[in-house]
Amino acid sequence: MKAQPRLRNQVALVTGGSSGIGVGVCLALAADGAKVVVNYHSDEEGADKTVAAIEKIGGEAYAVRADVSKEPEVLAMFEDIKKRYGTLHILVSNSGIQKDASFLDMTLDEWNAVLNVNLTGQFLCAREAAREFVKRGVQPEISKAAGKIICMSSVHEVIPWAGHVNYATSKGGIMLMMKSMAQELAPHKVRVNSIGPGAIQTPINEEAWGTKKALNKLLELIPYGRIGQPDDIGEVAAWLASDESDYVTGTTLFADGGMTLYPGFADNG
Ligand code: NAD
């Protein structure tokens, strides 16, 4: 736990908290004093490990199962959180999947699966969180904002990605969903932002870092010269959730080691 935790007395829901970036976000929010609800889809053991890691640093957490793309399951998860903690202050919509295929071969199932989890899942969770934030309003002793929504986007909200049209579409969609929500919810003192991770070392992209050859090729796209870690994203999420970023809404904070800086132009293009 940090010496001066910024998220004390706040409840945070992190979707997909059973692996990868979600674990880094859960731990960073807990280290900053938030009580963390660790959502998982099928990996109960992973979620239990995240809860145990949070308890080990003196934090509080519990795990709750829900498929974020299914409305009844999302509603039940929010009911569960209300029963357990009374309210919610922070949502990190992190769940996401890839189902890669060349555009010519992409099936409707592959398209729908990615859009359902990555975009509809974020819509459903953000809507439920926003309803709770607006109903409850600001609690000045807890935070300057009534609530904070953080969408896990990607550098692929701006970088086109051949072979991953469904994924890039979902992330581009998150960008305007986030900005439109931010515009609509600002008068209610709800802040909405995205994080745009670059390449972070997690199970979703193991083929990009699993061998030395693949990693070297990936590093050509990262001016800062290293692959990112879940902690890198956790720290950004904790800041965006805290009052230190109280004037920040409707923006994507890229945490990508410079991947969006067009590294191909570094030597004059
Ligand atoms: P990951 O595969 O480790 O995590 C994805 C998480 O989503 C898992 O916890 C999984 O259980 C959860 N999930 C999948 N389907 C779900 C469903 N239907 N309902 C609820 N949860 C579900 O990969 P990750 O890299 O940690 O990805 C986390 C987020 O970060 C994703 O949105 C991903 O698009 C984004 N991202 C990752 C990278 C990267 O380089 N790793 C880069 C940019 C963006």
Automatic annotation (TrEMBL):
PROSITE patterns: ADH_SHORT. It holds the Pfam family adh_short_C2. InterPro entries: NAD(P)-bd_dom_sf, Sc_DH/Rdtase_CS, SDR, SDR_fam. NCBIfam families: PRK07231.1 (NF005559). Belongs to the short-chain dehydrogenases/reductases (SDR) family. This is SDR family oxidoreductase. It comes from Hymenobacter defluvii.
